[in-house]
Structures are given as C-alpha cells and as structure tokens.
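USER: Study each token:
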Amino acid sequence: MQNIVVHLQSEVSNSFRCQKAANSLDIDTSKKSVHHLEIGVDLVKPFNVGLILGASGSGKTTLAKKLFGDDCFEVAIDLAKPIIDQFPDDWSYDDCATALAGMGLTAVPCWIRPAYTLSNGQRARAEAALLLAASTRDVIVIDEWTSVVDRTVAKVMSHCLQKYARRTGKKIMVISCHYDVVEWLNPDFISDCNLQQYTDRRAMVGTFERTDQLRLDVRQVDRKSWKYFSKYHYLSDNLPAGKIYTYGLFDGENQIGFQCFAAYIPGNQVTFFSNRTVIHPDYAGLGLGIHLINETSKDVVRKGLKVKAKFSSIPVYKAMIRQKYWICTEVSTPIEKGKMGSLKGNSGRQRVAAVRSKVKCFHFDFIWKA
C-alpha cells in the first residue's frame, strides 16, 4: 500500500478586481488557494480495474501523475483516420474487429468513417480500444471517463470497458468524477479523492451483483422506425418485401433497438425469418441484441408461426450458438463465385454478389414452444 500525498497551491492575483471579489466574501486567499490530499493506493496486489474518483479540483489528475508519471495520459486517436486503420500494423483484421467489438463498438460503418464523425460515446469507446491495443504501459490511464456522454450510455460503456480489460488481462486506471459508473466498472479498488478514502474491492469483484439495472421493454412497432436504425445495419437499408413483423427495444420512451421477421419462402406464410437486428451503438455491449431476438421470436411463435434465422454476422452467430432455444442446422455459402459475375462486371449488383460469395451464412431454427 502506497500512501500518496498531494499538495496543490495556486497563486492568487493581487489585481483590484480579484481583491474586490475576495473581500466581498471575506475569503482567506491563503487557505482557499491550497488543496491537500492524502490517500492510499495499492498497486502491488493483482488488479485489472482501478478507479480514481472525485469532483473537479479534488486532485484526481495530480494523483494519477504521482502514481504513473507526468506523461501517463496518452492520446490514442487520430480524428482524421478511420478507427480500424489506427490499430498496430501487425494486428490482423480479426484482432481489430475483436478489440472494437469488445468495447461495444460493433457497428461496422463506425469503423470505416473518419473518427471525427463519431459521436462522443463512440469516440470514447474507440479511443479506449486503441489505448488497450497499442499502449506499452503496464497500467493504462484513462482520464475524464464518461464525462461527455449521457449517463445511461456511461454505464453501458463502463461495463464494456471492465469486461474487456478483464478478458484481455489488461490493467487500467480509470479517472472519473461520476459515481454512477462505480457498479458498472466493478473496480478492484477505489481511491476517492473527495472522501480521501481507499477501498479495496478485490475480494468481491467476482461475485458482485449490480443493484443499478437498466429497465428495458420490447414492443411491436411500425416499420417506419427502421429508418432510424438502417444506417447501423451491415446489409441493406431496405426492409424485406411482403409480410413482416417489426419490433422495438425501448429504454423508457426511447427506442434503442429494432428487430424484423419476414416470410422469405414464396407461398409460405407460416415460416418467418429473424433479420435486421440492430441495437443503437450507444447501448452495444450488454448482449441486448440476442435478448431482443429471443423475446420477439417468442412473440412470433405465440402467433402460431415458425421462426428461423439466416445471417452472415459472426457476432450474432457466436451469441446464438450459446442459446438453448436456437439450433444451428446448416452453414452455407450463399452464392458460388462467378455465378453472378466478377468484380469486373458492369453491374453493381454483380460486384456485390462476387464479394459476398465468400461470406458464410448460418442457418438456425427456433425451437421454443409457447
């Protein structure tokens, strides 16, 4: 256990206006310009997630510099370049995709646009993924965590960060002024600069259960809401033709997810295929996609219909293969290369077909009984 002492003192101007302001409240400037912090930190015992908490001016940043050096805050992101092009050169595409998905940044369009086009939440996730990938430091320090995002988004991001750090064996020190992320980060220890108090949580991390939960519900929705989610989907912007059922996932009155079921087979209005599953990027990383698929599939079955799924998304496949009510029936390649033309073809449709000829399709049956 290290006992860290931080003593901060700032100069006070003797200008007329400054003296007037101080005298108006009879402020003792010699006391009000000094901040003393004394707090313990244990970096010797194994940990993955440390948390320095406190209000602005409480000494958080100075404490981090005392622990890890003045240069501990690394700038990991180039706003002019796509995120996926900023990972180490020796990383494979799968490595990059896994790192981004691990931080909950699962929307591929976000990977390939310049970073300046991302929202604050998406940018924070991307920067964390880059830091954990590229930093050579023993402990990675992340300052001002979730300071510029909605508080619900902050909780989702914090859950993704701690989960990814633990899965990859990284050690991170998170600095934040927000106490609402504590349960979602589930840190190994907390150094609270407001209370000047150290709390070791290592013994409870593995069994800790959050009391703070998101309250979400599923509702059937009009197909028009698809226009707000289509840009996040990896395939077509259009919904399937014919008979469809559409659902939304809601956080209060805010729709944060979309799910569709369509009758693909000509002449068969009994079998519906799950498709167009989208969770808004701000909520990605909590496993909400598979939850939405499962709950809406049950509703379709209650209508007396059968549910199947056919898709090429690897993350969806990995989630679905672990579900008790989904059975993988086939893995196929939908188009044989050359059947619809090559990359040199004149038709854009031909070129897409040639590219997708190497993409595997996964077929599942939903076996839940109403």
